[in-house]
Each structure stands twice: as C-alpha cells, then as structure tokens.
Write a structure and sequence with these properties.
seven-stranded mixed beta sheet; about 25% helix; 7 strands; alpha+beta; about 30% strand
C-alpha cells in the first residue's frame, strides 16, 4: 500500500518523464522542444528575453493553459522541468523564468521549481512567477 506521505514527497521530483526532443532554435534565439503523451502533443518554448534571461512556456498542440483531462499532469510537469533543467545546464542563463499557465497551478509550479533548482542557482519567487537566478560572482 502506498502511503500518502510517500506520494507527497514525490510531487515535484522529476520522475520518469516522457521522452522529449529538441526541435529547433529560431533567429531570435528562442528554442523549441516537444514531447507526446498518449493523447496529446506538447510544445515547449524557451523564449530569449535578452540579457541572458529566458522564459519557459508550454502548451498542447493548438491550445495553451487548458486542462486536457488526460490525468497525467504530474508526468507532464516532470517532462517540462526535465527540459528546463537540461536547458539551464547547457546554456547557463542568468535568469530562467517559470510561470504557470493557470493561477490554480502556481503552488505546484513552485514545488517543482524548488525541487529541481539547478546547482549554482537560487530560487526567487514573485507572486506566481518563479526565477532560477544565477548569482553574480
């Protein structure tokens, strides 16, 4: 029997993400990834805000911010945060912005942002927006 405490400890940890792939980078420095669940295709865009600051957005093909009802939200977030962690390790931005697609998901995003904080970064939260900040040396 799985205990509730062990389930709660697992929330926010990247576990068994869906396979994902790098798609392309556009001329503005924005980078795009994708992955599929059994019922949906997802796009993850990492936007270059300038000044070595990036922001992550994701959506199902053709929609943004809608609950798919698929029942795999934690695995989707695990995949998105796996992509984010890999991006930060590779590109080392000074600021990586994570914002929920819906206000009701702000707490779960914060848990994922805390548990997946890349080495050498600190988490700064302002309302529903979370930043992985690389401290200046």
């Amino acid at each position: 029997m799985i205990k509730l405490v062990s389930i709660l400890k697992e929330v926010g940890e990247v576990q068994n993400p869906y396979p994902w792939k790098y798609n392309f980078a556009d001329n503005d420095g924005n980078i795009f990834y994708s992955f599929e669940t059994p019922q949906n295709k997802y796009s993850v865009g990492i936007t270059d805000n300038g000044g070595n600051s990036y922001e992550m957005l994701f959506n199902t093909e053709g929609e943004m911010g809608y609950d798919t009802g698929e029942g795999v939200a934690l695995k989707v977030l695990s995949t998105v945060f796996d992509i984010a962690s890999n991006f930060v390790k590779e590109y080392e931005p000074d600021d990586f912005i994570i914002r929920p697609t819906e206000e009701k998901r702000a707490r779960i995003y914060k848990i994922y942002a805390q548990k997946n904080l890349p080495s050498g970064y600190k988490l700064v939260s302002m309302g529903d927006t979370h930043h992985w900040i690389k401290p200046k040396k």
